[in-house]
C-alpha cells in the first residue's frame, strides 16, 4: 500500500486539529504542519510517525507518548477509546441493564484530564460512570471494579514508562472478575473504537454527568489489604520510596492498620510528580533508579528497602549486601516472587484442617522462574504457567498466589485480580518481621530456599530499540536459523508459541530448552520498545554455595551466547 504524501498527511492533521479539545496538542500539531509546509524534513518524518499508524488498542489497552495524532496518547484518542469501550459494554449488557464503569487515575501528566474524558464520554452514551475520588494506585482501581461490581474499570496510567507517556488500562467485571481484558474482548473493543474514529468527531460525542466514588471504596481496599499481613512479631527497619508516584498515602494507611511502624522515607521521591525529576527512568528495575533509596538505607541502617513504581502496582525489594558497592542489593523479581510464593504455600499448608492437604494454585508467567513449580510440587499444590501479563496470571483457576519476574505480585486474589505492589509490600514486610523475630534475615531465608528447592538463577537481556522492525527482524532470524547450541550448551528443543503450544493462545515467544533443563525465552515487550530474553538455570547438588555457583555459571554462558545471537 503506498505511503501517504505530505499533502495528504497535512489534510489529516488539519482534520485532527479541528476535533482536538486540547489547545496544547492543537498548537503543537499546527507547528509541525507549518514546518512541513516550509520543507522541514524532520517535521515531515514526525508527521508521518504520528499519522501513518494508529496506536493499537490491545490487551494492555492504550499506552504511548502524549502528543497529537492517532499514533500518540491524547484527548482525541482517549475519547474515542472511551466511546468504543462504552459501545462494547452496551452491546454485551443484559436486556434492560445499565452497564457501569469505574475510572481511576495516577499522578502522571494529563491523567486526571484523560480520566474525566473517559468518564464523561461513557456517561454520555448511557454507561453509569464512577470516578475515583482522587489520584490513587492502580490496585485500588482494580479492587474497585469488584468492590463496586461494575461492568468495567479504566485506569489512566503508564505505570513505569518514561515521563511523557500515559495510557488507558481496561478491566472487565462480571464473569471476568475484575481481570484485565483478553481476547476476544480486546479485538471487539478495538473494532468499536475504529468505528467511532472513522464515523464520529470528538466534539460530537455526547458527554454526561459523572459520579464520584465515596471514600469508603479506599477504606475498604485498605482494610482488605491490611488483612494480608500477619501481626508483626518484630519491626524491621525499612526505607520506602514511592518513585514520585501515588503509592505512599495508601501504603501508609495500610501499614498503620496492619500494625507496622512507619518506614524511613525517601523524601525527595515521596510526593506524586509526573516529571520524575530524580530518576532517569521511573522504574525500580532500571540502573540508578534506587540510588536515593540506598543512600537513605545506609543512613538509617535499614534491614530492608521497599519501593513501588509510580502507580504502585509493582514492588521492588533490596537487602543489605556488603559485597555491593551501594551496600544494598535489589532482589530480582524472581527472588521476591519465590519467597512470597513459599510463604503463601506454607500458609495454605498450615490452614488445612480436613486432612486432605493444602489446596490452591501457584501461578506465574512462562518467563518467570521455574522455582515456583518446585514449591507447588513440594506442597502438593496446583501450578500454572501462563502467558506474560497478569491478564493471564489472574485467570488461573483456584489462584492462591501469582507473580511475574517484572516485579509484579498478586498475594490477595480474593480482592484484587491484578498485580498489587501495596499488598505485596505488606506481605514481604510480614515475612521480614517473622524472620527478624526468629533471629534470621531475608538473606538467610534465600539460602534456606536454595537448600530446600535448589538454587534457581535467572537473568535478563533487554534491548531497547527506536525502530521496532529490528525486533521483528531478530525474531524472524531466530525462527529461520534456530541455534543448535547457546553458549556451548546444546539446545534440546525449541518451542515456537506463535502457532500456539501447550494450550497457550498464539504468542510471539520462542522457548529454547537446553541440556540440564536450562531455559531461554525470547519475546518482544508488550508495553515498551524492547526485545527481552529471559534465562533460567537451576542446580540441586552440593552445598548452597556450590549450587548457586553451578546455576550462575550456566546462566552466564547462556547470556553471553544469546547476546551474540541477537546482536
TrEMBL record:
Keyword Cell membrane: no
Xref: InterPro entries: A-D-PHexomutase_a/b/a-I, A-D-PHexomutase_a/b/a-I/II/III, A-D-PHexomutase_a/b/a-II, A-D-PHexomutase_a/b/a-III, A-D-PHexomutase_C, A-D-PHexomutase_C_sf, A-D-PHexomutase_CS, Alpha-D-phosphohexomutase_SF
One Pfam family it belongs to: PGM_PMM_IV
Keyword Isomerase (UniProt): yes
Membrane-crossing segments per the record: none
Names of the cofactor(s): Mg(2+)
Domain of life: Bacteria
Segments forming domain Alpha-D-phosphohexomutase C-terminal: 506-549
Ranges of residues in domain Alpha-D-phosphohexomutase alpha/beta/alpha: 55-193, 220-318, 358-452
CDD domains documented for this protein: PGM2
Keyword terms, alphabetized: Isomerase, Magnesium, Metal-binding, Phosphoprotein
Family classification: Belongs to the phosphohexose mutase family.
Protein's name in the database: Phospho-sugar mutase
The species this protein was found in: Agromyces tropicus
Amino acid at each position: 500500500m503506498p505511503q501517504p504524501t505530505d499533502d495528504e498527511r497535512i489534510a489529516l492533521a488539519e482534520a485532527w486539529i479541528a476535533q482536538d479539545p486540547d489547545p496544547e496538542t492543537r498548537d503543537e500539531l499546527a507547528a509541525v504542519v507549518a514546518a512541513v509546509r516550509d520543507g522541514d524534513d524532520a517535521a515531515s518524518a514526525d508527521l508521518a510517525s504520528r499519522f501513518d499508524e494508529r496506536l493499537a488498542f490491545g490487551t494492555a489497552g492504550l499506552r504511548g507518548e502524549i502528543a497529537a495524532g492517532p499514533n500518540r496518547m491524547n484527548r482525541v484518542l482517549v475519547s474515542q477509546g472511551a466511546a468504543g469501550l462504552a459501545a462494547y459494554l452496551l452491546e454485551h449488557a443484559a436486556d434492560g441493564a445499565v452497564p457501569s464503569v469505574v475510572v481511576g487515575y495516577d499522578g502522571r501528566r494529563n491523567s486526571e484530564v484523560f480520566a474525566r474524558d473517559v468518564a464523561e464520554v461513557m456517561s454520555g452514551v448511557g454507561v453509569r460512570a464512577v470516578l475515583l475520588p482522587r489520584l490513587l494506585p492502580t490496585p485500588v482501581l482494580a479492587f474497585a471494579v469488584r468492590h463496586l461490581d461494575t461492568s468495567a474499570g479504566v485506569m489512566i496510567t503508564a505505570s513505569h514508562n518514561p515521563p511523557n507517556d500515559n495510557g488507558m488500562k481496561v478491566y472487565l467485571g462480571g464473569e471476568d472478575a475484575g481481570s484485565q481484558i483478553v481476547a476476544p474482548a480486546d479485538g471487539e473493543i478495538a473494532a468499536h473504537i475504529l468505528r467511532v474514529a472513522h464515523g464520529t468527531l470528538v466534539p460530537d460525542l455526547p458527554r454526561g454527568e459523572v459520579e464520584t466514588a465515596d471514600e469508603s471504596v479506599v477504606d475498604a481496599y485498605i482494610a482488605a489489604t491490611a488483612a494480608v499481613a500477619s501481626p508483626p512479631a518484630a519491626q524491621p527497619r525499612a526505607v520506602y520510596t514511592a518513585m514520585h508516584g501515588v503509592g505512599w498515602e495508601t501504603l501508609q494507611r495500610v501499614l498503620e492498620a496492619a500494625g507496622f511502624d512507619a518506614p524511613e522515607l525517601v523524601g525527595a521521591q515521596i510526593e506524586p510528580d509526573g516529571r520524575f525529576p530524580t530518576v532517569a527512568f521511573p522504574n525500580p528495575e532500571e540502573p540508578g533508579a534506587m540510588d536515593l533509596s540506598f543512600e537513605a538505607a545506609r543512613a538509617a541502617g535499614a534491614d530492608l528497602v521497599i519501593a513501588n513504581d509510580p502507580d504502585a502496582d509493582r514492588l521492588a525489594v533490596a537487602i543489605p549486601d556488603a559485597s555491593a558497592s551501594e551496600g544494598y542489593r535489589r532482589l530480582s523479581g524472581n527472588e521476591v516472587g519465590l519467597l512470597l510464593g513459599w510463604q503463601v504455600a506454607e500458609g495454605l499448608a498450615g490452614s488445612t484442617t480436613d486432612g486432605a492437604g493444602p489446596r490452591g494454585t501457584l501461578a506465574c508467567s512462562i518467563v518467570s522462574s521455574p522455582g515456583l513449580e518446585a514449591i507447588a510440587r513440594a506442597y502438593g499444590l496446583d501450578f500454572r504457567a501462563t502467558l506474560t501479563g497478569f491478564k493471564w496470571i489472574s485467570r488461573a483457576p483456584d489462584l492462591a498466589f501469582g507473580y511475574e519476574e517484572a516485579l509484579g505480585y498478586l498475594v490477595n486474589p480474593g480482592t484484587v485480580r491484578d498485580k498489587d505492589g501495596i499488598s505485596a509490600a505488606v506481605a514481604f514486610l510480614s515475612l521480614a518481621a517473622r524472620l527478624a523475630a526468629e533471629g534470621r534475615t531475608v538473606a538467610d531465608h534465600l539460602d534456606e530456599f536454595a537448600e530446600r528447592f535448589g538454587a534457581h538463577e535467572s537473568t535478563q537481556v533487554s534491548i531497547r530499540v527506536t525502530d521496532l522492525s529490528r525486533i521483528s527482524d531478530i525474531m524472524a532470524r531466530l525462527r529461520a536459523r534456530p541455534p543448535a547450541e547457546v553458549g556451548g550448551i546444546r539446545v534440546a528443543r525449541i518451542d515456537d508459541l506463535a502457532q500456539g503450544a501447550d494450550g497457550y493462545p498464539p504468542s510471539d515467544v520462542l522457548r529454547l530448552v537446553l541440556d540440564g533443563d536450562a531455559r531461554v525465552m525470547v519475546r518482544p515487550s508488550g508495553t515498551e520498545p524492547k526485545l527481552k530474553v529471559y534465562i533460567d538455570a537451576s542446580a540441586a547438588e552440593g552445598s548452597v554455595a556450590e549450587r548457586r555457583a553451578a546455576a550462575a555459571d550456566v546462566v552466564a554462558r547462556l547470556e553471553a551466547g544469546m547476546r551474540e545471537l541477537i546482536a
